[in-house]
Design goal:
Length: 233
């Protein structure tokens, strides 16, 4: 197991005393920390975006969940099942009504079958080494990238303590192509480096739990109505 050494605080464990919202004649004073937290909760604040070159150097940062270190979170999601839903809803696995609806469709509805396909992404807390401020960002990668990260980290003989803040392994990630033809190359840098991450590590399990529950049955019924198909339940 890589050691989870981090001086970055996990999310939502701040002991900072909350001041009550100040109100004045000019209106309500908006605390920028609160706003940043809300942006992160909305899922748009600290996501990593690819540079045009498609080439980055990333450091992976374990986060803490239920008293142990975790490297990644596997997110399975349905992207914008209905136009009213901005973003995604989480797939509920065996009980997922959207998956059940999808499985019941025949070839005539191939577009909807494709649209409802659950997408799998692996989420990591990372620092982009090109970022001078060394901000912690959320990196979303496909299974291929996840496999390559994990292979290096598990190779403790060749890459001991790969997530160390003082002398960790930087991953050179090269993204090529677009859409379905996107490919990724991952190479561990032979040179060790130090990193001083700024900001909060995201606890993805906690973030997921805080998203609030949605009734996938209702959403599946809305999808069925919009596409003029019948739900199997
Ligand atoms: Zn599903």
């Amino acid at each position: 197991m890589p050691r989870a050494k981090s001086n970055a605080k996990p999310k939502r464990q701040s002991t900072k005393k909350k001041q009550s919202v100040r109100q004045s004649a000019g209106g309500i004073h908006l605390d920028s920390d609160d706003l940043k937290q809300d942006i992160r909760d909305a899922g748009g604040g600290n996501y990593f975006t690819w540079p045009d070159s498609g080439k980055v150097k990333l450091r992976l940062l374990p986060y803490e969940h239920s008293g142990r270190a975790k490297l990644f979170y596997k997110a399975v999601q349905h992207w914008q099942p209905t136009p009213e839903i901005r973003g995604s809803v989480s797939c509920e696995g065996h009980d997922c009504k959207l998956c059940q609806l999808r499985a019941s469709l025949d070839k005539a509805n191939q577009d909807l079958i494709d649209h409802l396909r659950p997408r799998i992404q692996y989420l990591f807390n990372v620092v982009d080494k090109a970022d001078k401020e060394e901000r912690i960002q959320i990196f979303r990668g496909p299974r291929t990238v996840y496999n390559m990260f994990v292979a290096v980290i598990l190779d403790e003989e060749e890459f001991p303590d790969a997530c160390s803040l003082e002398k960790g392994v930087d991953f050179l990630v090269q993204k090529s192509g677009t859409g379905l033809n996107t490919t990724y190359g991952v190479t561990p840098s032979p040179k060790r480096s130090a990193v001083n991450p700024q900001g909060s590590l995201t606890n993805f399990e906690e973030q997921e739990a805080n998203r609030g529950s949605v009734d996938l049955k209702v959403i599946a019924e809305q999808v069925a109505e919009a596409y003029d198909v019948t739900v199997p339940f």
